[in-house]
Structures are given as structure tokens and as C-alpha cells.
Design goal:
Structural class of chain B: alpha/beta
Helix content of chain A: 40-55%
Strand order of the largest sheet of chain B: 3-4-5-6-7-8-9
Strand content of chain A: 5-15%
Radius of gyration of chain B: 20 Å
Largest sheet of chain A: 8 strands, mixed
Number of helices of chain B: 15
Radius of gyration of chain A: 21 Å
CATH class of the largest domain in chain A: Alpha Beta
Shape of chain B: globular
Oligomer: heterodimer
Bound molecules: zinc ion
């Protein structure tokens, strides 16, 4: 699952219309560069000017990026996915497939990972990069066996006293017949419940799509970070628009209303931090984006491992028991009867 | 902007793990899962299907209601016990004298279809008369996202409060079941489809804490369309909040029972409802993660008969028992009697 994605710069992906001004400059730049290479013309001045314009346009576009545009960046086909991270930032990885109950869910990758001297358990949604991989991974939609595989590996991590790092990147848990028969809801619920008792640090990173319960099923963490252009939402903007607006055209409005971006969720107090992406998004400078994630994992794990585990668990519980709450809004249990 | 909107939309999936684009959605419908499942256990699957079909035939009476979608049930919600003396059962079409239905615990006398029970009636049905003591009844939703579709969430919430006479979708309190004291939580489908926002999540958590504080069993009735999307991620966080509280209750050796009633889907099923110690369901109840419509649309295929109904889930090992409404009170009392030693088993409370 580590094939590099195919970059096709000449056609912007569907939904990336907001990048058109950038794209036009990129095309122009390419033409100039090719022209200067193919001939003896000195186009340095022109190329420099276009480069400058491009940088400016990129910064402006991404500074004013709308929530819906961010969702599209989060889904961009060139955006690094789990397989890319495994191939690029890990110094060792032993995949452990078994859920030991039903079957191997390709949409959930689990295994023992190492960066430098730091060892941990990686639990990650997997989308794949080629069409064949994407199909095999159901586009990152995990089945109950995927969630149960994740739980089994959390138990192993606990035994080996290895911290857990999760990569969240799913449109949502798979909505299918087999998934329902095998208890999709229960599998997710069991994981959420279990993660409150897992006696090792948990770092969760939303690397792309944080799709609802399917994301939360591996998403309870001592620290929950979002990449700058990832999103995390209770429902897809498409689903929300269809239900509340009864109009698919209103998807951008739904994306706006749901407050699903990293800055919005920081403000609501439901995530703990944002990982900066290169200007123009992770898909424009994949190496740099992945390196930042690597550094973040190292610094976050060092921090989490310095806290005594009982304190960490108490704080994990407290954080979620009062997730995003306005202080003082709700009575304590002692105050209930008064 | 009819006030009935909130009900009609509620049972739809709030968990909608749909593809990123139309093309992808198309591709995804080539269900990999089916191929895999067939390869892995084609024979077992076929046998299971046969067994399911048989069980379903046996449960035909209750399942008569469970035709191939949930529409009839939802129509009931729109009416909410209409003013007239007579009404029509949506499952079998029989005309029922309203008083008879109410006397019969909202079960159709001719086909045993279990109508969705509003919270107040449920509490009357389950608890000993005069024992219910409601708690935190004043908590109201806040429109923290300034969420506006055709109307603002604040306004929608205000109108709902006015219309249904409840402040939120969860009833929390203490009471007794055949003399046994309990903490009880009842989701009320008539308040925005029993959807879970901050207040519902908080009250479930408070219920867990109260049960722990008083060493009482926790009894939860669910009927819910899932997370309340008007509260965005704050509503998704309630899945974690309720599980955190339940985890604490478990640590202290508490005992929890969840009775899933029609319909229970989305973020409620995927959190506290599925991880109580004992999971019961009412006959014919629709219970699932994704709503049947989402699944049918995603897979572009017809769903098996009785899919996601309580009887189906029982054969798949997903619930502990189906309990007809008339037996519910006594069954709960008997279950609670088995939890006498529960508290001594946990870490000291
Ligand atoms: Zn009937």
C-alpha cells in the first residue's frame, strides 16, 4: 500500500474549483519552464514573476479557504494517506493483520511501528492510493472486524507498554449488510468504551477525513490533533445538506454550518491541537507534510510518556466527560437533587 | 416550516459514511464486502441466511410490522396520538379504538405491532406508580454553532419545546420497578427524533454517575435517530462522553441495562446503547448503525427482509433478548434481582 499516488497537475480534481487561479498560474509556469528548456530563450525574469504571483495566489487562496474547500483538500487524491506515511516516516513496521474473529479488514491498518528509537502501535484507517487498493479498502470505510482488529492491537500495546498512535482518515464506517450483521455500532461503541481504560498513552491524528462514529472508533486520545486541512464531522456535508436542506447543492453551506474545520474545532474545545501543513496543502509538498507529522509524533509521545499513567487516564476521562462543555453549564451529580 | 419536520428527518441516518464524490459512491456500491464474505464463508452465510429466514417466519407476527422499510412507524410519530377516538395501525391497517391501544401499552391488539412510546408514557408503563422523581429536567439545548438551515437551531429547539412540552429529548430520574429502586433514562423520540446533543449526552452521563453514587442499577430506554447534527462535533463528542461515564460506572461495579426500542440508530447505537451490560430490544424494533435507506442507496440493492429488526439482530448474536412490552416490567425486576452482588465486585465505590 505504499505506491506513490499519481500526480496529475494539468487537471484540478473535482471539487477543487477554488484552486483554479492557482492552477492557471501553475500551467503558465510549466509552459514557461518548458519553453526555456526547449529553446535558448532567457525567461528567468518572466518565470520569476510567475513564481512570485503563484506564491502570492497560493497564500491568499489558502488563507481564505472555505470549510467546503478544506473538505476537498482533505479528500484530495494526492494527499498523503496511511500507506504513504508508513513508507515514508517509519523506520520499521511490522503489520499485524489479525482480528482473530472474522477476517482481515484492509480499511484498518495495524502494526508495530518505530521512528528512530521511539516504538509504538500504529492503528490507522487505510484508503489506499491506486484504484485497486481503494476498492480493497472500501475507500477507508472500515467494517466491524476492522474496529475489532484495532481493539485487539490496543490490548497488545497495553501489554507491551507501547503508546498508541492512530491515524484517522475515513469518510465513515462502512454502511453495509454484513457490517450491520456483525455489529458495526457495537464494534465502534466497544472501542470507544475500551479506550478509556487502555493503560498506555493514545495520540490520535486526523490526517484527512474525520468521518463521524467511524473516526471516533479509533479516535479517543489523550491528545487529538488535526492536520490543518483535515476535517472532523458528525456527518458528511453531503449527508447533512441532503437531510436538512434537502438539496445537494447546499453542501458547501452544510460544511460551513457544521463547524468541521480544525480552527473551528479548536475553538469549540473538542480537539487539542493543529498540525500545520505546507502552504497549498499537504498534497503540494507531501514530503514536508509527512515530516511534520513525524516530528509531531515524536514530540507528542515524549510529552505523553512523561505523565504517570494513572494521571493520564484520569485526565483522559475528565476531558471526554466534559468535552467541549461551557464550564458551569451542567449540574454535578451532587447538585442533581437540590 | 412545519413542526413535524424534525420527526420526519430524525430517523434518517445521522451517521452517513458516504463517499467523497458521486463517482466514488458508485464504485463503492460494488460491495467488496459481499465478495469477501462469500469467499470466506459462503456456506456458513447461506446457512445463516436460511436460519434467519426461518427465525423470521416464526416471528412473523411481530415482523408483519417490519415490512421492508420503516415508513409506517414514522407516520405514527407525525400523528403523536391524534385527537380522534380511532386510529389505524400502520402495520396491519386495522382500525383501533384509541383507548384500547392505550390500555394495551401501545401494542396493536390485532398484530402486536409495538408503537413507539413517548417518554412520559414509557415511564408510567415501567415504573411503580408515584415513584418517579425527575432530575435535571430544566436543561435545554444551546445553539452553540449558530446552526441555521431553513430556521435556526435555537428557534427549532424553542418551537419543539413549545410543541411537545419537554425541554429536551431525555428523561432522567429515579424510581422503582416492582419495588426495586433504579436510575432511569428514557430517550423521547418526539423531541427531535430522540437525537443526542450535549444535553442528552450529559444526562446519560449524570445517570451513570447517580447510579454509581447510590449503588443503583441503571435502566436506559432508547429511541433515537442518532446524533443531533445541529450541534456538529459537540454531538459526536457525546458518544465519547457517555462511554466515559459508563466506563466509570463499570469500574465501580455498576449494572446497566439498555432496552432498544423502535427506532434506535446512528450515534446512540454506536455508543452507550450498545455497551450496557444487558441489551434488550422490543419486538420489531429497528436497530442499527446506518439507516436502512443509506445502506440501500449505497449498495444499490434491496435489503433482506426483516433486516436490522430486533428479531434479525437476535439471530446475529447482537442483542441479548427480545422482550414483549407486556413482560418488560417483570423482566427488568427479575434482571435486577440478579445484580444483588454487582457492587461488591467492582473497585470500591
Ligand atoms: Zn396492527
Amino acid at each position: 500500500m505504499s505506491e506513490p499516488s499519481q500526480s496529475n497537475k494539468s487537471v484540478p480534481s473535482a471539487g477543487m474549483a477554488f484552486e483554479r487561479p492557482i492552477h492557471e498560474l501553475e500551467v503558465k509556469l510549466n509552459e514557461l519552464v518548458e519553453l526555456s528548456q526547449g529553446t535558448n530563450l532567457d525567461l528567468e525574469t518572466e518565470i520569476g514573476a510567475v513564481r512570485q504571483a503563484l506564491a502570492k495566489q497560493m497564500a491568499e487562496t489558502y488563507e481564505n479557504i472555505t470549510p467546503w474547500a478544506r473538505v476537498n483538500v482533505a479528500r484530495h487524491p494526492d494527499r498523503p494517506v496511511t500507506g504513504d506515511y508508513v513508507a515514508t516516516i517509519l523506520d520499521d513496521f511490522i503489520e499485524l493483520h489479525g482480528d482473530k474473529v472474522f477476517g482481515d479488514d484492509a480499511a484498518m491498518l495495524t502494526g508495530l511501528a518505530r521512528i528512530g528509537e521511539r516504538r509504538f502501535m500504529l492503528i490507522a484507517h487505510r484508503k489506499g492510493t491506486t484504484i485497486a487498493q481503494r476498492l480493497a479498502c472500501n475507500f477507508g470505510c472500515a467494517h466491524p472486524e476492522g474496529y475489532r482488529k484495532a481493539l485487539r492491537k490496543m490490548r497488545l500495546a497495553e501489554k507491551l507498554r507501547l503508546p498508541i498512535v492512530t491515524f484517522i482518515n475515513t469518510p465513515g464506517a462502512y454502511p453495509g449488510i454484513g457490517a450491520e450483521e456483525r455489529g458495526q455500532a457495537a464494534a465502534i461503541a466497544e472501542n470507544i468504551l475500551a479506550m478509556f481504560g487502555v493503560r498506555v498513552p493514545i495520540l490520535a491524528i486526523v490526517i484527512g477525513e474525520g468521518g463521524s462514529g467511524g473516526a471516533l472508533g479509533i479516535g479517543v486520545g489523550d491528545r487529538v490533533l488535526m492536520m490543518e486541512h483535515s476535517y472532523y464531522s458528525v456527518i458528511s456535508p453531503e449527508g447533512c445538506a441532503a437531510i436538512l436542506w434537502k438539496d445537494g447543492e447546499r453542501t458547501p453551506d452544510a460544511a460551513e454550518a457544521l463547524k468541521l474545520t480544525a480552527p473551528d474545532l479548536m475553538q469549540l474545545g473538542v480537539v487539542d491541537g493543529v498540525i500545520k501543513e505546507p502552504v497549498g496543502g499537504a498534497h503540494r509538498d507531501r514530503q514536508k507534510a509527512m515530516a511534520t507529522v513525524r516530528d509531531t509524533i515524536l514530540s507528542e509521545l515524549a510529552l505523553l510518556e512523561s505523565v504517570p499513567i494513572d494521571e493520564l487516564l484520569a485526565e483522559r476521562h475528565r476531558k471526554y466527560r466534559h468535552a467541549g462543555e461551557i464550564p458551569g453549564r451542567f449540574p454535578s451529580v451532587e447538585e442533581l437533587d437540590s | 416550516m412545519s413542526d413535524e419536520r424534525s420527526e420526519t428527518e430524525a430517523p434518517r441516518p445521522t451517521e452517513q459514511p458516504i463517499a467523497t464524490s458521486d463517482e466514488e459512491r458508485g464504485k463503492r456500491s460494488v460491495s467488496k464486502e459481499d465478495k469477501k464474505a462469500e469467499k470466506l464463508k459462503a456456506k456458513a452465510e447461506a446457512e445463516a441466511a436460511k436460519a434467519a429466514a426461518k427465525a423470521e417466519a416464526e416471528a412473523a407476527k411481530a415482523a408483519k410490522a417490519a415490512d421492508d422499510d420503516d415508513k409506517p412507524r414514522l407516520r405514527w410519530k407525525k400523528k403523536e396520538l391524534p385527537g380522534g377516538l380511532w386510529l389505524k395501525c400502520e402495520a396491519c391497517g386495522e382500525t383501533i379504538y384509541k383507548k384500547t391501544l392505550l390500555k394495551g401499552d401501545l401494542v396493536c391488539p390485532s398484530c402486536t405491532f409495538h408503537f413507539t412510546v413517548p417518554g412520559t408514557e414509557r415511564i408510567q408503563m415501567v415504573l411503580d406508580e408515584g415513584t418517579y422523581h425527575e432530575l435535571a429536567a430544566d436543561l435545554e439545548a444551546l445553539d452553540r454553532l449558530n446552526f441555521t438551515d431553513s430556521v435556526s437551531y435555537a428557534e427549532k429547539s424553542r418551537r419543539t419545546i413549545e410543541r411537545v412540552g419537554l425541554k429536551e429529548a431525555l428523561h432522567l430520574g429515579t424510581g422503582e420497578i416492582e419495588g426495586r429502586p433504579v436510575v432511569i433514562c428514557v430517550l423521547d423520540f418526539k423531541f427531535m427524533g430522540g437525537s443526542m446533543g450535549e444535553v442528552v449526552g450529559e444526562k446519560i452521563a449524570l445517570g451513570c454517575e447517580l447510579a454509581a453514587e447510590r449503588n443503583l442499577p441503571l435502566v436506559i430506554f432508547t429511541s433515537s435517530g442518532g446524533a443531533r447534527m445541529h450541534e456538529g462535533m459537540l454531538s459526536l463528542m457525546q458518544m465519547a462522553k457517555t462511554c466515559a461515564a459508563l466506563d466509570e460506572l463499570n469500574r465501580k461495579g455498576g449494572f446497566s441495562i439498555c432496552i432498544m426500542t423502535n427506532p434506535t440508530t446512528g450515534g446512540v447505537t454506536a455508543s452507550f446503547a450498545s455497551v450496557c451490560d444487558v441489551t434488550l430490544a422490543e419486538p420489531g424494533a429497528l436497530i442499527g448503525f446506518a439507516g436502512p435507506r443509506v445502506i440501500a442507496t449505497t449498495l444499490k440493492q434491496e435489503l433482506p427482509k426483516g433486516f436490522q429488526r430486533a428479531e434479525f439482530l437476535l439471530t446475529k448474536g447482537q442483542i441479548d433478548a427480545i422482550v414483549p412490552r407486556k413482560d418488560l416490567r417483570h423482566t427488568l425486576a427479575r434482571l435486577i434481582d440478579f445484580s444483588e452482588r454487582a457492587w461488591s465486585e467492582g473497585e470500591s465505590a
